[in-house]
C-alpha cells in the first residue's frame, strides 16, 4: 500500500522523527515530496510505502504524529530484485555489499553506504574515494560470480 | 479519484486560477509538484483529488482550462478523521477551530488559519504570536474536552 | 539587496501572509525555494528582493513575522527593461498590457494576468483562450508601434 | 501502468540516457520528481507511464539501466483528447501543429515546439516571438475550423 | 561567505555525510537545493555558509569530499538576533529553549527540537503534542520576561 | 558574474533552448531552480554563471529569449581545480577522462559522460555497468599517476 498525506501546517523539524518511527514500524519506504498547495503554501507530501498488514499501524502513526486530518491510499504492486547481503574482503577489511539478482543471475552489487561512511571516518579518506574502492572490490567479485 | 496531468507548455500564471476553479467545483484537494520532463523542461504535475461524482466535471476543467491534451487517473481510498468546527473564546474574541477525532476521541485541535491572519492584521501583532496564542487557547479547551 | 532566510521550523500556512506583507512594504520580489536542511528537514529559503532604503523595514518583517533567528543578505544589481503600462482595446473591452523596452525600442508586450482572469470569469471563457486572444491583440499593437 | 522507482544512489548524469531509452521503448511519458529520502538523501522518483503491453520491457529497463533494486507500479486510466497533426502555412513556411478535440469539436491547437526551435535558429528570431507568431497562426486557423 | 557547488555526478547517499562533516568543521549552515542542469540532469546545489576564517577549510572539504571540480562563492552579511539558551521547568522536566532578542527585548522563544524528540520517545507521547506543550511552557515564561 | 531571473509567465518548453544558447555564447554554467512565486505561481529561477566579459551578451540573451522584464546579478568568485582531459585505453577502446588537480596533485578522475553513453549504446551494455567499468579504468590510471 502507498499512504500519502499532504501537510501544510506542520513544523518541518518533525518530519525526520516521523520518518524514523515509520521505518521502525516496518515501512518499506518513507519519503517527502515538496509540493505547492493553495494560498501559496509550500507543503510536503509525505509518502509511506508498506505491506498491507502494516497499513493500519502506519496510518495511525501518520494521523497521530503529524498534524494532518486525513490521508489517502492506493494499492501498488512491486517488482523487487532478489537480494542478498554478502561480505567481501577489501583493503579496508570485510565490508557488506548488497547483491541483486534478476532471473536468477546476479546483476547488481553495491556497497552498503553506512560502511563506506565508517571507513571514510575511520581511515580519514575522502568518501568518494572509499566508495569507488568498494565499488571496485564489488565489481571484481561480481565478475567472478557472474562467470560461474 | 486522483486526477493528474503533467504540464510543460503552459504559462505558470494560469495555475492559481485553475486551482481556485477546481476547489469551487468541489475538488477535495488541488496541488502542484515540480517535475523534470524530457528535453530539460521544468514541468508541473497538477493533482486534483475528488469524489467520483465530481470526476467528470473536474476532468473537463483540467482539459479545458490548461494546455494539456490528456490526463491520468486512479482510485484512492481515504482515511479521514471526523472533523468538527468549534468556536472558542480567546483574548482576540471568538475564533473558529478545527477539531479532529480518532476512534471517537478528540485528538487534534487547530486554529483556522484565515482567522489567525485577520487577527494579526486587525491587532497589528506578529502572526507567529497570534498563531501560538490560538494554539494555546485550543490546547486548554482540548484538555478540558479530553478529560470528559 | 537580496535578503534570505532558511526556515525549517515554521507552519507553512504563514508564508502567504508574510509574502503579502513584504510586497505591501515595498519588496520588489518575494519568493520561496524548497531546500533540504540538516536532519532530514524539508525547509524553505525565503527570498526578499528590495531597494536598499527598504532593507531595514523588510529585515524587521522577516525577523518578526517568521520564526527565523537570523537572515543573510548581499547586494545585487539589476538590469530592468524600461516598462510602460498601455491600455489596449480588445474584443473583451479595454485591457492593460505591460510593455518592455530595450535600447529605446519596444521589445515585449504582455497582458496583465489579473485582467485575463477577470475576463475569463466574466465571459465564461477558458483562460488559455483569453490569454491567447490578448497576446494576439498585444502582438498586433506591438507590430504597429515597432514599425514606427 | 505507472512504474515508479525511488533512486538515491545513482550518478544523476545517467537519467537523461534512461529517459531517452524509455521513450524509444514506447513509454507514454517519463519524468523525474525531486524527493527527500531517509538520511538526508536528495533522491529522484523516476516515473514511467506505459501501456500494459510495454510494462515488462520497461520494468526491465528501469531495473537494468538504473541502480534501483526494485520498483512499484499501479494501474492508471487515461483521458486523452483525440489528437491530430495538421500542417499550417505560416510566414516561416509550413509548420506542424498539434490539434486536440473534445467531444468531436476542436478545442486546442498548439505549435510543435521542435519546429519553433528550428525557426528561431534558422531565422535568428527570439523564440518567444516565434512561438507567439505560430500561436497566432494556429489561432486563426483554429477559429476558421471551429466555425464550420 | 556563501560557498556553492552544483553537483550532477555524485551518488546522493554521500550528501548526508558531507553535511555533517561541514557542520563539524564549523559551517554556520549547510543545505541542498534541487536544481535542473543541462542534459536533463537533476542536480543538487550544495550551499555552505561560513565565517571567512573557515572558508579555506570548507572549500577544501567540498572539493575533496564531493565529485565537484569547482565551486563559487560570494560574501554575505548576516543579521542575527542575539540568542540565549534558557532552561525551563516543564511537566516533562527541565528543557532547553532558544531565546531570541531584538533591540534588547526578548521576541522569540522556541523549544530545542532534539529535546522534544527525546521527550516524545521517552514518554510515548505524539511529538506534535510534546511540541505544543513546550511552546506553551515557553510562552508563559516568555510573557513573564517580557513584562519585566 | 551570476545572472538570475525569476520567470513565472513563460512556456517551459522554451528553457532547454535558452540553456543551449547560453552555453553556446560562453556561459560557464546554466541551471534552473523551481521556486514558488506570488499568487500560487510555480516559477523558475534561471541562473547563468559567466565571466564578466560575457555578461552583456548573456544579459541580452536572457532579456530577449525569455519573457522576463528584468534580471539581477552579483559577482561571485570561483575556486576551480586545474583540469586536464586525458585519453585512457579501456576495454571499450580509448576514452576521454577529466582529471582534476588540487595543489599540483591529481585528486579526481572521472569519465566523460557522453562517451559512457556512446559505449552503452554501441556495445548494448547497461550504462551503470559502463560507467563503473570506466571509473575502474580511471582509478587504476589514477593510482599510477598519484604514485609518481
UniProtKB/TrEMBL annotation, chains A, B, C, D, E, F:
Source species of the chain: Geosporobacter subterraneus DSM 17957
InterPro entries noted in UniProt: Ni_insertion
Pfam families: Ni_insertion
The protein, known as: TIGR00299 family protein
Upper classification of the organism: Bacteria, Bacillati, Bacillota, Clostridia, Peptostreptococcales
Keywords in alphabetical order: Nickel
Amino acid at each position: 500500500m502507498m499512504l500519502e498525506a499532504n501537510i501544510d501546517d506542520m513544523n518541518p523539524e518533525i518530519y525526520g522523527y516521523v520518518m524514523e518511527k515509520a521505518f521502525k514500524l516496518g515501512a518499506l519506504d518513507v519519503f517527502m515530496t515538496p509540493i505547492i498547495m493553495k494560498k501559496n503554501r509550500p507543503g510536503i507530501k509525505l509518502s509511506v510505502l508498506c505491506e498491507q498488514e502494516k497499513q493500519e499501524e502506519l496510518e495511525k502513526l501518520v494521523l497521530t504524529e503529524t498534524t494532518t486530518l486525513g490521508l489517502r491510499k492506493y494499492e501498488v504492486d512491486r517488482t523487487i530484485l532478489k537480494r542478498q547481503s554478502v561480505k567481501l574482503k577489501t583493503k579496508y577489511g570485510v565490508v557488506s555489499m548488497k547483491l541483486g539478482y534478476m532471473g536468477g543471475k546476479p546483476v547488481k552489487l553495491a556497497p552498503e553506504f553506512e560502511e563506506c561512511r565508517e571507513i571514510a571516518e575511520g581511515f580519514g579518506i575522502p568518501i568518494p574515494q572509499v566508495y569507488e574502492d568498494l565499488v571496485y572490490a564489488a565489481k571484481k567479485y561480481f565478475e567472478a560470480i557472474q562467470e560461474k
